[in-house]
Design goal:
The complex is a heterodimer. By secondary structure, chain A is of the alpha+beta class. Chain A contains 3 helices and 5 strands. Chain A has a domain of 103 residues: Hotdog Thioesterase (Thiol Ester Dehydrase, Chain A), CATH 3.10.129. Chain B has a domain of 100 residues: Thiol Ester Dehydrase, Chain A, CATH 3.10.129. In chain B, strands 1, 2, 3, 4, 5 and 6 form a 6-stranded antiparallel β-sheet that branches. In chain B, strand 3 and strand 4 form a beta hairpin. In chain B, 41% of the residues are buried. Classes of the chains: A alpha+beta, B alpha+beta. At the A-B interface, helix 1, helix 3 and strand 2 of A face helix 1, helix 3 and strand 2 of B.
Amino acid sequence: MGINPALAGRVYPPSAGYEVSREKIAEFATAIGSDDPAHRDPEAARALGHPDVVAPPTFAVVVAQRAEGQIYADPDSGVDFSRLVHGEERFTHHRPVVAGDRLVATLHVDTAREVGGHGMLATRVEVADADGAPVSTVVSTVVIRGGE
Amino acid sequence: MRVALRRFEDVSVGDELTSRSFPLRRVDLVRYAGASGDFNVIHWNERVARSVGLPDVIAHGMLTMAVAGRLASDWAGDPAAVVEYGTRFTRPVPVPDDDEGALLEVGGVVAALDAQARTARIDLVATAAGAKVLGRAQAVVRLG
């Protein structure tokens, strides 16, 4: 069994808020090797028109993967995490993530089906700010490899 | 490094971004695991990676994507200018347990312009050991 098809269409409850700190942005920037001052120096970020330091383009994955984890923690999903292969990832940013944001993630299961013995799972995490305004949409596709 | 946004008028379809090489070593995978919270064991434990049929510990696809994306964000002059970024993960990047690790080579080209939105679509090509590791890697960048 790769994936429970009944997951398709499911929407999980919104996550607890994730507070974005300057330190976490700098840590993530270092981890991807970026020395861009907009990630570390509030003055450099303000010179570009941002209220505070900005997160790297893929930073929202930190919040999105936490939300996606709800599927793997759910015994009902049928997913064996060790057989999971990342197929595709897409970020659409409605506005930049900046230090001081409080992000709330809502996980949607867009596709859950069996194809040729493998499980196909497409998720969409809608990331919003404390006021409920959209920040990022993170779409992820994974394949759960079937048993040999 | 630029601290100003690249101007739309200064960009043409076909412009090539300066290619760059990024080493990915075991320490980089460990650092990314900690920063991202992705502790999937295949990114740090060779024994487990081999037991599930992988040639070695492999880099996080999301690390490869993030590093390749730096070409677009550095070119734009503002990481927040990347309004859209997507890719497929077509091939794993094995990272051997030595001082060199894997070498990710990234190139990019301006593939399309949208004058109304003042955005450029950058098509990125990322290879490791001569093979493409990302498919349809595209970033849409808002310009000044």
